[in-house]
Amino acid sequence: MNLSDAFEAMVLGLVEGLTEFLPVSSTGHLLLLGHFMGFESNGKTFEVLIQLGAILAILSVYASKIIAILTALPHDPAARRFVLGVLVAFLPAALLGALLHGFIKTVLFNPWVVCVALIVGGLVLMIIDNLDLEKKHDDALHFPLPMYLGIGVVQCLAMIPGVSRSGATIVGAMLMGASKRSAAEFSFWLAMPTMTGAFAYDLLKSYKDLSLHDGALIGIGFVMAFISGLVVVRTLLDFISRHGFGIFAWWRIVVGAAGLAGLLVFG
After folding, report:
1. Using one digit for the tens of pLDDT, what is the confidence trace for 24-59?
2. Which of 3, 94, 140, 221 has its CA 20 to 30 A from that of 34?
3. φ, ψ for residue 178 (rounded to 5)?
C-alpha cells in the first residue's frame, strides 16, 4: 500500500463519518469523491464496509440508552414496542436491499445518478424544512407502529445513492408528524440495524475477493469514519433543533451541481 492510497482512504473515511448521519448521502459523497480522486475500490466494497466505523461511533454514544432499553424488555411494554417498531422500520429496506443488491452496485452506483439525486433530494429537504407541518410526535421512542412502518418504506428510496438514508428517514418521519429533532433521532436508531445489515451482507458477498491491500485501506477508512462519526452524533441533534435542515439542503444542491459540472468537463 502506497502513501497515496492511504491518504485517499483517510479522506474518504473522514467524509463517511461526517456525512453518514447527515441528510446529505454519505454513499453519494464517497462515490463522487472517489470518482474525481481516481479511487476505485474492489467491487465498491470499501464505500460500504467503512460504515462499520460510523456504526461503532453511534453505538458508543448510544450505549447507555441501548442497554437501558434492552434491560427493560422483559418487564416494559413500551420498550418492547419500540424495539418492534425499529425492526418493522428496518425490514422493508433489508428485503429490498437483498433483492436488488446486484442492480444497486452495478447500475445505481453511478456519479450521474448521485448528482441528480443530491439536487432533487436537496430541493425536497428544503421544501419540507420550510413547511408548517403538524408536530404530533416529539419522542422517537413512542411513534405509532404504522408510522414506524411508513418511515421504513420511505427509507427504501435511499437505495438510490445520493438520496441519503438519514434524509429519507427524516423526511418520512416529518411528513408523518414527527418534530425535526425526533425525526433526526429516529434516523440514528434506524441506522443501527440498517447499516449493520448492509455491512454484514456486503462483507458476506465480497470477503473472498478482498485482498490484504483492500483490508488495510478499509481499516484506515474505518478508523477515520469512527472518529468523525463521533463528532457528528454528539452534536447533530442540538444543531438541528436550533437551525433545521436548510444548510444541508443547500449543501446537497451545491455538491450535486458541482458534480454535474465536473462530470461534463472532466468526464
Report:
1. 999 899 889 988 888 877 666 787 788 889 999 999
2. 94
3. -85, 145
Q: Which domain holds residue 69?
A: 3-266
Dihedrals phi, psi of 39, to nearest 5 degrees:
-90, 125
- In this structure, the number of other CB atoms found within 10 A of the CB of residue 32 comes to 24
Residue 138: helix, strand or coil by DSSP? coil
Position 91, amino acid: L
d(CA 50, CA 174): 29
Question: For residue 83, what is its C-alpha cell?
Answer: 424495539
Count structural domains, the chain: 1
Amino acid letter for position 124: V
